[in-house]
From TrEMBL:
Co-factor: note: Binds 1 FAD per subunit.
Binding site for NAD(+): G182, G183, G184, P185, I186, G187, A188, E189, E205, G269
Matching Pfam families: Pyr_redox_2, Pyr_redox_dim
Stated family: Belongs to the class-I pyridine nucleotide-disulfide oxidoreductase family.
Keyword Iron-sulfur attributed: no
Protein name in UniProt: Pyruvate/2-oxoglutarate dehydrogenase complex dihydrolipoamide dehydrogenase (E3) component
Keywords: FAD, Flavoprotein, NAD, Nucleotide-binding, Pyruvate
GO molecular function: nucleotide binding; oxidoreductase activity
Length: 457
């Protein structure tokens, strides 16, 4: 069967869903295709369920801080309400009917099926029953296929029932012990959640430190917090094999050390869903790690790509940002082109670790004349009076030649919120001289930004 339309949106992550909705509302004949759930990884297996877990774990940690500050507490942790909220409130038991209806109400044709390019403007969709429909899109195709958990080539791993983010957000009973492979954002957040719910966690990171892309100062504050939560953090490890027998996982390290646990979570990066998308039919490389796009998100004639596969930051806010720009281009409207000099990111550990723009090392690698300023949050008035849980750091990176911040990091309670101030400064290239003339309310956490600016010299 062959069908004419204006636009096919292939993959409905957060950005694809929003773009398909906007294009349909603007009157285009839109075919919106997803092989799994409309909305993608974020609402069902990513941001939303993981942050519900984080919220619960943070409450436990805050309760434990009452002692010595505001009296005494005794808290009995229970996973049941967390699992219930995720299943019932966040994901409706991993059912996307509400999202499908919302998109259909906007005027799009919503299909559950696997899409594949079959030439410029042509997409073949294979429905779950095997029926294939070919769509010819007059205006073009938007690709938003996202990523899947990377499969590690570790001996024995593939034969074990390990968890990825897909399984861990559906857990109803916590294990006694857990090994986590990968100290990126997923590994760090889930590790802390599990530890705070009483699971004995070992975190194995191949790189020299966890959260490697963050400033070293930020990464070390989070690593210390995990250790304080009882986590065994092992960085710089090489994993030589994994096995599973009698309900126990055994992870053997290159130096001969062995780690046993009831469960294993692999959170060691993502693989882009580009390999089976028919990219070769439009002259693109299916083995690429990312799709090259211009500042309007064009990957070719009548072809746009948005989200994680563009390689500009695997975050929901990047997918949504790109979605709005690509939609304008699809509709032939003008607007600001995409710019990535101030992409913010927050790892929702406690303390939260936020960053924006360049790290000190990235700025130096670009040959900028770099000045940095740092300040420990616990030495600020607010950090000190906050007491337990008030640890953190603020670091600013200045391009001294231009007198503007090109990067900043904030680790601390609500670090992601404090980051907003610095994200604006980096985005709008507010002169450091102007930032120095601001009045910073006393005693807020964000007032410590002034101390970090002072430290620039
Ligand atoms: C555990 C976890 C926690 C996270 N936490 C955060 C966070 O706190 N903040 C944040 O900003 N980001 C977070 N992320 C990242 C965030 O989920 C992604 O950046 C976000 O989902 C955007 O991805 P995307 O738009 O590229 O597509 P995705 O959300 O990956 O969706 C892609 C969609 O395309 C579909 N698809 C793929 N191939 C095909 C095909 N051939 N045919 C049809 N459909 C196809 C898939 O089924 C999927 O629904 C987290 C991720 C994980 C895994
Ligand atoms: N709060 C957030 O915004 C948030 C939270 C979770 C995920 N995310 C997004 O999802 C993406 C995927 O997250 P992720 O944590 O899976 O990936 P990641 O690529 O960010 O981190 C993976 C980590 O695993 C390590 N690793 C790789 N192979 C290993 C091995 N064999 N043994 C031990 N360690 C190994 C890497 O060195 C790295 O530190 C991230 O890039 C991020 O953009 C964002």
């Amino acid at each position: 069967m062959s069908t004419e339309c204006d636009l096919v949106v292939l993959g409905l992550g957060p950005g694809g869903e929003a773009l398909a909705t906007g294009a349909a509302r603007a009157g285009l004949r839109v075919v919106a295709v997803d092989k799994h759930l409309v909305g993608g990884e974020c609402p069902y297996y990513g941001c939303i369920p993981s942050k519900m877990m984080v919220r619960a774990a943070d409450l436990l940690a805050e309760a434990s801080r009452v002692d010595g500050v505001a009296g005494e507490t005794s808290v009995t942790a229970s996973w049941a309400p967390v699992a219930r909220r995720i299943a019932e409130e966040a994901t409706t038991h991993w059912d996307d009917q509400v999202a499908v209806d919302r998109l259909a109400d906007a005027g799009a044709t919503v299909l559950h099926g696997t899409g594949r390019l079959a030439g410029p403007g042509v997409v073949e969709v294979t429905a779950p029953d095997g029926t294939v429909t070919t769509f010819r899109a007059a205006r073009g195709v938007v690709l938003n296929p996202g990523t899947r958990p990377a499969r590690l080539p570790i001996e024995g791993l593939a034969d074990t029932p390990y968890w990825t983010n897909r399984e861990v957000v559906q857990v109803t009973d916590l294990p006694g012990s857990l090994t986590v492979i990968g100290g990126g954002p997923i590994g760090a957040e889930i590790t802390q959640v599990m530890a705070r719910f009483g699971v004995r966690v070992t975190l194995l990171e191949a790189g020299p430190r966890i959260l490697g892309p963050l400033e070293p100062e930020a990464s070390s504050v989070v690593a210390d917090a995990l250790v304080a939560d009882g986590v065994r953090v092992m960085a710089g490890v090489e994993i030589s094999s994994v096995s599973h027998a009698d309900g126990t996982f055994t992870v053997t390290l290159g130096d001969g050390q062995v780690v046993h646990s009831d469960r294993l979570l692999v959170a060691a990066g993502r693989t882009p869903n580009l390999d089976d998308l028919g990219l070769e039919t439009v002259g693109l490389d299916p083995s690429a790690r990312s799709l090259e796009v211009d500042e309007r998100l064009r990957a070719g004639d009548g072809l746009w790509a948005i989200g994680d596969v563009t390689g500009h930051g695997a975050f929901t806010h990047v997918s949504m940002y790109q979605s709005a720009i690509a939609l304008r281009d699809v509709l032939g409207e003008d607007g600001a082109p995409a710019a990535y000099h101030a992409v913010p990111h927050v790892t929702f550990t406690d303390p939260e670790a936020g960053g924006v723009g360049l790290t000190e090392q990235q700025a130096r690698d670009r040959g900028l004349s770099v000045r940095v300023g740092t300040t420990p949050l616990e030495q600020s008035s607010r950090g000190w009076l906050h007491g337990p849980g008030g640890t953190g750091v603020i670091k600013v990176v200045e391009d001294a030649e231009r007198g503007v911040l090109v990067g900043a990091s904030v680790v601390g309670p609500a670090g992601g919120e404090i980051l907003g101030h610095l994200a604006l400064a980096v985005h709008a290239e507010v002169p450091v001289a102007t930032l120095r003339t601001m009045i910073y309310a006393y005693p807020t956490f964000h007032r410590a930004i002034e101390s970090a600016l002072d430290d620039l010299g």
